[in-house]
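Run log // design_07
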């Protein structure tokens, strides 16, 4: 068992029994569940919309090489610089070089899961650069020294009282402020940073291949300010973010809004095609786009796992997952938590170190049912388990135990050996670890054969 697995089990066990944590999560997810059906009403046929989106993403991923080339050619023509990063360290080194060239002391950053993936804030702090999260949820988490709890709502696990206490501790405000007042406090702090910052960093919800642009969707306007006010704008995006055409946004923006927050469309939707042009007054003087691999081509090469690259990071699978709702986002100890995180993390990192996440599932299929682009998440979890076993990452005792189990299950005479007490003892006592995180397996007093014979005889 890896150290990550041991830590996951310990943290998830603690969270699963934390009633206050569960109350907060159920409250917030309950509000989400109440508004999503309203957002879906904008689609004449929401399942058809999801199917179409999946097909579009399939086209983008299957033609990713062409998408990358088209994007680079188009956005470079308008003055942006495209940087290719094979891994997290290359991306960080390039960002470090740009910040050094601009003599950057303060940097504003909009919400971006890919920058969490490469641990950008830690890197910048080591360089002596102040990096400010400008999304309210991310700002709250940064003040508390915690990573995001959820893909879409980073501070989902905190109540308004928790946030008021945090602001009082970190910013010296009244501990009884209302959510509206807390928002105003954050706004006052952050607006000063936009003016001071030499560099702004954003992610990209979508990369648009045919026109060479990035598309950002948000509810606060912080991403628009982060990419528009500083003189230098850096985009960090995973190479899987592509959609083929600008026209595809008419489907993906409403779909992402509905499945992400239950809205018909988010408040701010921005298309950025490059730095400030000759006849323009607003925008950054320079723009860099860092296209990050960091294990994504490993998934691309895997024909079965490739489907996970369709993900648009709406977070719907997290909100639907019974495991996530009990153990929370931080128990996973990964950038991407919940079902999608359990699928892609072992593929992006080392399967032997992270395979336990793919076993942290009831396989109920609810994640697949709610996925905005119809990714077969529960089947991909099973595929990860299959790859882990084929790769030799299971223990000898586990492999032996399941071989014996399979042999017994396929042989009726072996199944009928012994009574229920003996079978209960074998499973619950001899199979080490079975009861550690599970309830006892209890066999019925009479086997199916016995019940059949009692009712029908030897027919």
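design_07 sequence
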């Amino acid at each position: 068992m890896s150290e990550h697995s041991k830590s996951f089990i310990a943290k998830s066990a603690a969270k699963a029994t934390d009633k206050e944590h569960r109350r907060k999560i159920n409250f917030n997810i309950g509000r989400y569940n109440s508004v999503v059906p309203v957002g879906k009403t904008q689609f004449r046929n929401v399942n058809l919309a999801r199917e179409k989106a999946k097909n579009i993403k399939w086209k983008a991923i299957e033609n990713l090489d062409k998408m990358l080339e088209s994007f680079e050619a188009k956005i470079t023509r308008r003055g942006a610089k495209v940087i290719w990063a094979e891994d997290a360290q290359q991306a960080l080194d390039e960002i470090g070089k740009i910040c050094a060239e601009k003599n950057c002391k303060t940097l504003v950053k909009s919400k971006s899961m890919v920058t969490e993936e490469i641990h950008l804030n830690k890197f910048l702090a080591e360089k002596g650069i102040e990096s400010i999260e400008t999304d309210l949820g991310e700002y709250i988490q940064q003040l508390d020294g915690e990573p995001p709890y959820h893909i879409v709502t980073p501070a989902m696990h905190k109540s308004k009282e928790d946030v008021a206490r945090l602001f009082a501790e970190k910013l010296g405000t009244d501990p009884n402020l209302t959510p509206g007042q807390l928002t105003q406090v954050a706004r006052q702090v952050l607006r000063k940073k936009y003016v001071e910052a030499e560099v702004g960093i954003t992610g990209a919800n979508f990369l648009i291949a045919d026109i060479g642009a990035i598309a950002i969707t948000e509810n606060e306007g912080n991403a628009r300010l982060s990419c528009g006010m500083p003189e230098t704008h850096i985009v960090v995006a995973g190479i899987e973010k592509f959609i083929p055409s600008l026209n595809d946004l008419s489907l993906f923006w409403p779909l992402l809004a509905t499945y992400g927050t239950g809205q018909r469309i988010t408040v701010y939707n921005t298309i950025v095609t490059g730095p400030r042009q000759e006849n323009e007054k607003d925008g950054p003087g320079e723009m860099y786009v860092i296209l990050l691999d960091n294990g994504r081509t490993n998934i691309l090469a895997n024909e079965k796992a490739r489907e996970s690259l369709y993900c648009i990071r709406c977070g719907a699978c997290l909100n639907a997952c019974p495991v996530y709702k009990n153990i929370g986002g931080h128990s996973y100890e990964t950038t991407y938590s919940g079902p999608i995180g359990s699928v892609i993390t072992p593929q992006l990192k080392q399967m032997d170190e992270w395979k336990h996440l793919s076993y942290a599932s009831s396989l109920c299929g609810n994640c697949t049912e709610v996925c905005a682009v119809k990714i077969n998440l529960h089947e991909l979890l099973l595929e990860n388990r299959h790859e882990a076993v084929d790769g030799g990452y299971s223990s000898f005792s586990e492999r032996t135990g399941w071989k014996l189990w399979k042999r017994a299950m396929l042989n009726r005479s072996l199944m009928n050996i012994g009574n229920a007490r003996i079978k209960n003892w074998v499973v619950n006592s001899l199979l080490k670890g079975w009861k550690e995180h599970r309830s006892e397996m209890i066999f019925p007093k009479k086997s199916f054969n016995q019940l059949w014979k009692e009712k029908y005889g030897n027919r």
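The chain has three domains: 1-41+310-394, 60-294, 398-456.
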